[in-house]
Structure formats: structure tokens, C-alpha cells
């Protein structure tokens, strides 16, 4: 879930692919001052430096750079679907270093992590002022975008293709089951307003409420159990458009991207976009997590442990309950829903989210895989949030926060996982 990238281009092309034939990936990073690490609103200056004009998006070979709602956030995404996730860490890493080189002349650098640790969004938010500004102004007028849930949340998006209604049904059923435990894998936002919040995934916690004027926008974050385009439009999209219509008489916002659930159907490009992942400390960590997620979803689509009819039977409430608990404690969340655990083939009647993920990793990701090392570190030493909490050791003085998040900036530039 991001601030709202409304570009017409996407990380997937318009030709419908079959399941798992391609992957669209989007990474969002904060831009901060090189010295004090305060947010630095210069995304448009970066794009102008490269393109010679203010653009919403610029193609840089296999990667695109684009704006987001806030001027201190820049997004990198695949230029069309990538057939192989293994190539993406190096591609993204190259562009991260290039952007950092540009930023060095502006006194800035990129910072990873789902939230800036001390940003005051009420005073520091500057919205994108160029093309698409009418859309951003509409969001700001309705929801007031100068808040953490809009201008201080950085994420990874994963787009997965489906070819037709039958493939959408299988993919959506699997994605709904995987979503609740993803904060236990990718939580990376334990600090906000200069303090530990009590949530490993503060980004998701504030996001849940940032559109409370229109509750149907995000719903329960876990999507409804609908498995066709017709039903999706009937149950999710059309009621959402009706809810916002009194605030949006010109129908500026009545499009698929208004839907803010944790995974949204993009029928215009035949993908499901997963949006509940905090950005990690480097692209290698991001892609390892995405590969693991793809294998979890593929395993369900293949009905290895549970058939599709059983996957479809899960209602929102039990899934949302697990999801909310994982937002708080990530890997330490105790899951006592035996039916849910059994869907993944977990052999016990209860277990922590970390134990479930470790079990799935051992079954789905070979030790010889390039992703095994990064995933082992995440599962043994904790999510990025857990490692940040460990490094802080209850010391949230500004200088300590600056030290830890400065180290994260260095990890991002070097392409290394954070191991305090």
C-alpha cells in the first residue's frame, strides 16, 4: 500500500499473461538529507535532472523511475513484466546507486524502511505539484493527505498476472490466504514520531484508518471472497464508487486504484497487486521476500495442501484477525486457527507466524537457492522491524535513531541486509 501512484504506465504490460509468467515489482524509497536524515522533497528535481523536464515517469532501460504523492518519495519499478525475479536485485541496485549519486549533489540520499522515524507529516509534507495534480488535490481535499498514512509509508508492490476469470479465481483465493502472514515476513516500520510505536508494522496500522471517511476504500484490508470480475465489480468496486461519489462529483477518483485493500484486482491490466509489504533495507531482501511469496501462492494455486474450494471458503474475519495480530508482533504472533494452519500443510494445531514461515521456507525454498541466505537471516534474526528494535535496545534518543537509520541507508546503497 503506497501513497498512490497514479501513472498510466504499469510494471505489467497490457497483454494478458498466464499465472506466474511475469512479475511486476514496485519499490518506494524516502529521500532524506544526507546529514540530518530529515525528509528532502526533491523527487521532481531528480526527474528533471535526468529528463530535462518534469515528468511523472521516466524509463531507464528495464527500470522506470516515477513520482509518488509526496515529493520526498521516489518509486522504482520494472518497465513491463519481468520473467525472472533473480535478475531484479542487481537492476534495482544499479539504479539506487545512480539516484544516490544524483542526490549527493543535492545533499541527499535514499532511506529504506516503511516509515520515516521522526518525520512530522503535518509540517513537512509537500505534495507532487506537476501533472496528475488534480487527482492528488482530490485525495487531499477528501482525506487530508498530510498525515502518516499518506505521506509517510513506503512499500513494495508485487503484481501477479492472470489470463482470464478462471485464473483470477485461483489466484485471488491463494492471495487472500497468504496476505495475513505477510507482515510477519516484511514488517519494517516500528518507529514513528521519534518513538517505538508498539507495532512492528506501523505503516499498515496507520494505513488501515487513513481513509476512514470512506470505510469501503480499504475495507478490512483482506479482500472479500469474490472470484470473478463480475462479482468483484459488484461486491467491491461499484459500492466503493457509490460511497465516494458525494465527495467526488467529477468522478476523478472512481477507478480501480481507488480500492485500497491489501491486494487489489487491476482488471485493466489483468493483475492482482499485493500492497501490504514494507520496503526492506535493500533490493536483495525485497526480492527474496517476493520470491518466497510467489512460491507460497504457487503452492496454493497448485492445490498441494488444500483444494481451491477450501481456499475459497475462508471468510474475511478470521483472516483479518491474523493479519491485525501480525501487524503488532510480526513473527512472534501466535496463530491458533487450526484450519488456517492446515491450509499450508503445517503439522501442528497452533504455532507462531515465524514457525509457519520457517516451515514453509524449508518446504518451498531450497537451501541452494540464492534467496535462502537472505530468508534465513530474516527468519532467524527477525523482520527488519525486529532487527531495528533490537538495534535500538529501547534507546529512542534522536542520535540513536539517526545512527540506526543511517546504517540502513548504508545497507541500501551497498545492497546488504541489515544485521545489527
Q: Could you characterize the architecture of this molecule?
A:
The structure is a single chain. The chain has 420 residues and is α+β, with helices and mostly antiparallel strands. The protein has a single domain (24-414), classed as Creatine Kinase, Chain A, domain 2 (2-Layer Sandwich). The protein has helices at 43-51, 88-104, 121-124, 133-143, 148-151, 165-178, 183-186, 202-207, 229-244, 283-301, 308-312, 316-329, 338-343, 353-364, 372-381, 384-392, 398-414, and strands at residues 24-33, 57-60, 63-67, 73-78, 108-111, 155-161, 191-192, 195-196, 263-266, 271-278, 334-335, 351-352. Mean pLDDT is 94; it is low at 1-9.
Descriptive tags:
12 strands, 8-stranded antiparallel beta sheet, 420 residues, Creatine Kinase, Chain A, domain 2, 13% strand, disordered N terminus, alpha+beta, two-stranded antiparallel ribbon
Chain-wise SSE layout:
Layout: E1 24-33, H1 43-51, E2 57-60, E3 63-67, E4 73-78, H2 88-104, E5 108-111, H3 121-124, H4 133-143, H5 148-151, E6 155-161, H6 165-178, H7 183-186, E7 191-192, E8 195-196, H8 202-207, H9 229-244, E9 263-266, E10 271-278, H10 283-301, H11 308-312, H12 316-329, E11 334-335, H13 338-343, E12 351-352, H14 353-364, H15 372-381, H16 384-392, H17 398-414
Antiparallel strand pairs: 1-4, 1-5, 1-6, 2-3, 3-4, 6-10, 7-8, 9-10, 11-12
Helix pairs in contact: 2-10, 6-10, 14-15
